[in-house]
Write a structure and sequence with these properties.
mainly beta, 3-stranded antiparallel sheet
Length: 61
């Protein structure tokens, strides 16, 4: 099961313990899923304050 970073909400693949943002605050308790392909042109990325492409959780506990 994938996990999500509590700090940036990026989806972390199984086996990894540190997010690309450098955080090790990882949770298995998350909901929602969004894929950002064009961070500069995406309204969703702007609302979520995301600057990089990738897979993100909408809510992380």
């Amino acid at each position: 099961m994938d996990r999500a970073c509590r700090d940036c909400h990026r989806i972390i693949e199984e086996g990894k313990t540190v997010c690309k943002c450098g955080s090790n605050s990882i949770s298995r308790d998350w909901n929602g899923y969004v894929v950002i392909v064009d961070a500069e042109g995406s309204e969703i990325a702007k609302k979520m304050e995301l600057k990089n492409e990738g897979r993100y959780a909408l809510k992380v506990r």
